[in-house]
């Protein structure tokens, strides 16, 4: 029986519950490929899952690792899109924090020749999420102003760049000057430290009281009043995270009605295979070719898989700017 190293935990708790163990290698089923993983990444919900505060949807692999980059080493029955040896980045239901993982053949994108596996591993989850927020949920247009919360996060650093690529303007909030500086470097036209100022006052000042056309909101409760003040009439408010809470106590619906807003809630991991396939295809056709030019993956830090606990502590510290990547196996040669 072929085995592999993988991250596991047996009970809920902090990063100290994580360990590496030898488990059976997965077998690709119909329409799936087996990847040899070179790199994977850590996402915001991973420590929440280990703590018992987030439950993955029932139909996905509940093991840690929602993305990975690697090479195709085996094709399941009926696979036609890829061949052995292809360098790919995969959006996964889970299981990527391991030496091998199976992925749906429609959820893979080619890793451009100029990109390392370490860079590629941080792309699928946050870049596909943001592409979906802007183009599937929010329908961004050139000239729009988009307010991005958590501007230094994995999703935030991707969002600034995709907003620019769409010909729109990114305005961010973040909790440290270092994150605001990075946002500006990536092309944000304005940024506000939400811990020091009322960001709605600043957004209105910047937009000469018009407000923003779209908000990418991963905060929820703690920002709702400022969001309502920041958004323009007939704006679109896209909720995709609840880091500041899920409950709203106040006249939120009055504001929604008066400003004739669109409020859109969205997520990615629970979506069905076809939705993810369509998203990967749209991203591949419209965004992937811009890496190495207008777009760049932002990597905060790289840890070997064995240091998974340190990687989890880093993301819960909230000090990361961009993605926390896990190195699983060294890539000896970068193919073109
Ligand atoms: N729905 C989906 O499909 C989907 C997919 C991917 C990610 N997400 C969501 O997107 C969000 C970001 O994920 P990520 O992996 O990119 O995050 P990340 O890299 O871990 O960054 C999160 C940052 O958010 C800021 N933050 C945390 N709590 C906050 C609060 N209460 N108020 C304001 N800012 C807060 C912190 O930065 P500061 O220093 O600026 O405070 C923190 O460093 C999460 O909510 C995640 O669940 C959703």
UniProtKB/TrEMBL annotation:
Pfam families: ADH_N, ADH_zinc_N. SUPFAM superfamilies: GroES-like, NAD(P)-binding Rossmann-fold domains. Keywords: NADP, Oxidoreductase. GO terms for molecular function: NADPH binding; quinone binding; quinone reductase (NADPH) activity. The keyword Cell wall biogenesis/degradation does not apply. Residues 13-326 form the Enoyl reductase (ER) domain. InterPro entries: ADH-like_C (IPR013149), ADH-like_N (IPR013154), ER (IPR020843), GroES-like_sf (IPR011032), NAD(P)-bd_dom_sf (IPR036291), Quinone_OxRdtase_PIG3 (IPR014189). The keyword NADP applies. NCBIfam families: quinone_pig3 (TIGR02824). This is Enoyl reductase (ER) domain-containing protein. It comes from Patiria miniata.
């Amino acid at each position: 029986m072929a085995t592999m190293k993988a991250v596991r935990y047996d009970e809920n708790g902090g990063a100290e519950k994580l360990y590496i163990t030898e488990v059976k290698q997965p077998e690709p089923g119909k329409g799936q490929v087996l990847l040899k993983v070179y790199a994977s990444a850590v996402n915001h919900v991973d420590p929440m899952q280990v703590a018992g505060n987030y439950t993955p949807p029932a139909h996905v692999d509940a093991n840690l690792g929602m993305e990975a980059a690697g090479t195709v080493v085996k094709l399941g029955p009926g696979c036609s899109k890829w061949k052995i040896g292809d360098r790919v980045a995969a959006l996964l239901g889970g299981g990527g924090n391991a030496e091998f993982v199976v992925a749906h053949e429609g959820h893979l994108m080619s890793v451009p020749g100029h990109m390392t596996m370490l860079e590629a591993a941080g792309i699928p989850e946050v870049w596909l999420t943001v592409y979906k927020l802007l183009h599937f949920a929010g329908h961004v247009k050139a000239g729009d102003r988009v307010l991005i919360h958590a501007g230094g996060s994995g999703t935030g650093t991707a969002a600034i760049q995709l907003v620019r690529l769409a010909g729109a303007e990114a305005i961010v909030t973040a909790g440290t000057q270092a994150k605001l500086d990075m946002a500006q470097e990536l092309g944000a036209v304005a940024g506000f430290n939400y811990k020091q100022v009322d960001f709605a006052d600043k957004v209105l000042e910047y937009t000469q009281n018009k407000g923003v056309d779209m908000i990418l909101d991963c905060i929820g409760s703690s920002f709702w009043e400022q969001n309502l003040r920041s958004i323009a009439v007939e704006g679109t408010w896209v909720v995709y995270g609840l880091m500041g809470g899920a409950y709203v106590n106040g006249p939120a619906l009055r504001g929604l009605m008066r400003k004739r807003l669109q409020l859109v809630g969205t997520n990615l991991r629970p979506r069905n295979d076809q939705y993810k396939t369509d998203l990967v295809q749209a991203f591949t056709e419209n965004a992937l070719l811009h890496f190495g030019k207008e777009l760049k993956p932002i990597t905060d830090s790289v840890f070997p898989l064995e240091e998974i606990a340190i990687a989890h502590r880093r993301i819960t510290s909230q000090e990361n700017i961009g993605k926390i990547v896990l190195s699983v196996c060294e890539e000896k040669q970068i193919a073109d």
